[in-house]
Amino acid sequence: MANVAIRTKGLKALLDIRIGPGAALLSKDVKRIHLDFAFKSDGGHMGPRKFWRNHLPRLKYYNPTVSMTVNRTNDPTAPATLLIHFAPPSSSPSATASPAPSSSTTPSTAPSQHHPIDRIEAVDVRNMRDNEILTRVLELTEAVPYEATPEELAELKEVEDFKRSSGRDREAQARLNETRKQEQALLDQARGSAAKAI
């Protein structure tokens, strides 16, 4: 059986995916979300990068049938754009449709389960903060935020309590180690003085 710290870390990772900003159900007519930004965060690409790291995994968790692709370029002067593809409401597949692909090597690569596109909303995300990008996505897609259950909130509180107690334990252990070092230094000094006296 894994120790408590490992299990708590795993639980925290699961809760981070299920709860927090970006945990939302997109409208049924959203078919694809595509994000373009540079590898380096220079030139206003930090917000898109943080959006990709922090918010896109939660959006994908709650919307597995929506294709979410990311194209990262080496050119820091390249535009940072977010494209949201909408399909006509009549062609929306059921919620039980198989998941769409999650990555693309080029921005022109279409998902294999391609649906006709009704419209595309383009957002220039250069120099935008990750929270601003998320707010814009939720507005454009008319997303419904996920409300955490009492059980999930209790689990989250348990993890936070464990982190606080771990911090206190680390501080107490550090003080104990410092005391031991000081005692050892005094003993070494006393032994050195006794050896010189002989």
The gist of it:
The protein is of the alpha+beta class. The chain has helices at residues 4-18, 46-62, 130-141, 150-197, and strands at 24-25, 30-38, 67-73, 81-86, 119-124, 144-145. The chain has a 4-stranded mixed β-sheet, with helices on one face.
Keywords:
198 residues, alpha+beta, two-stranded antiparallel ribbon
Which helices and strands appear, and what pairs or packs with what?
Elements: H1 4-18, E1 24-25, E2 30-38, H2 46-62, E3 67-73, E4 81-86, E5 119-124, H3 130-141, E6 144-145, H4 150-197
Parallel strand pairs: 2-3
Antiparallel strand pairs: 1-6, 2-4, 4-5
Helix pairs in contact: 1-4, 2-3
What would you say this structure looks like, in words?
Helix 2 links the parallel strand 2 and strand 3 (67-73). With 198 residues, the chain is of the alpha+beta class. It contains 4 helices and 6 strands; from the N terminus they run H-E-E-H-E-E-E-H-E-H. Strands 3-2-4-5 form a 4-stranded mixed beta sheet, covered by helices on one side. The termini are far apart. The longest helix is centred in the C-terminal third of the chain and has 48 residues, at 150-197.
Low-confidence parts, pLDDT < 50 over ≥5 residues?
91-98
The number of distinct helices, counting runs of at least 4 residues, comes to: 4
Radius of gyration: 26 Å
Give a quick account of the main beta sheet: strands, pairing sense, barrel closure: 4 strands, mixed
Termini separation: 56 Å
Strand tally: 6
Topology as a string of helices (H) and strands (E): HEEHEEEHEH
Mean pLDDT over all positions: 79
Secondary-structure class: alpha+beta
- Strand fraction equals 15-25%
Q: Judging from the principal axes of the Cα atoms, what is the shape? A: elongated
Measured as a percent range, the helix fraction is 40-55%
Give me the side-by-side strand order of the main sheet.
3-2-4-5
